[in-house]
Amino acid sequence: MRKILMIFVAVMLIFTACAPQQRPLPRPMDQGQQRQQQEQQRAATPKQDLETNESSITQMERVRNCRVTANTVDVKAGTGEAFPTIGTLNRNQEVRVLDQVGNWYVIQMNNNRVGVIDAAKAKPIIKDGDNLQNQPVQQPQVAQQPQEAQQPTVPQQTPQRTPQAQQPQTQAPARLGAQEQQMVDLVNRERTKNGLQPLTVDLELARVAGIKSQDMVDNNYFSHNSPTYGSPFDMMKKFGISYLHAGENLAGNQNVDRAHTALMNSSGHRQNILSPNFTHIGIGVRPSQKYGYIYTQMFISKPR
């Protein structure tokens, strides 16, 4: 009997030693501890990278001038080859575009007569003062279906522009600052790697970009829409910038390299940086207590 008891005790000791040890369950955190943990996690996230996910923005303006690229182009009385020819334009001739209807430009010839040309035979160009008015140009009406013994009725008056908004007295910088030039170099390096033409610095556009960055600092916001100037496209027009395509990238970061990396890792910003439509760039950098620096990249195309 004693031997059986000893065997039983030995078996129980072995079973107890092999059984898995239960760990004490963690005590649930109260609300104060949870809040403290969340604040510690937020503090560990680099604040200078938070705003670089802001969507980029881009826009194409209505074509207002074009240059003929074919040897000759027939000017039609309406939007179709079946309409009568009322004139002829030659290569490199420049005309005013009043409207675009499908694949046709409604143009005003040098004799002030209005007609229509094939848009594929002309190239949009920018002239000083284009798209600076606040109201759209009055759209002429042209015939879109051939009709026998009828000519389309179109206005013969030259479209009137509204006065240009008064511009601030600040002048464009003589050259870019060190950070701004560094960012231009990084942008053009990316474009070259992707087989694109480098962008030309437009100092007037750089002035506007600098004013936008300073406006964000002064008014404590981070957005494409300024409470002072409106959208970047409104702002460009108010400062006398003419363009066919335009775009804007914003970044809040501590230095140029980190801002550029964050922008290139964002699809919308990257698309602006590598857009084949743009020809010119302006960059404005201003110190920011919140981010270190605010970077505004403005892009435009000015086909001549």
From TrEMBL:
Residues 63-123 form the SH3b domain. CDD domains: CAP_bacterial. Keywords: Signal. SUPFAM superfamilies: PR-1-like. The keyword Signal applies. Residues 31-42, 135-174 have a biased composition (Low complexity). InterPro entries: CAP_dom, CAP_domain_YkwD-like, CAP_sf, SH3-like_bac-type. The keyword Signal applies. PANTHER family: SCP DOMAIN-CONTAINING PROTEIN (PTHR31157:SF1). This is Uncharacterized protein, YkwD family. The lineage of its organism: Bacteria, Bacillati, Bacillota, Clostridia, Peptostreptococcales.
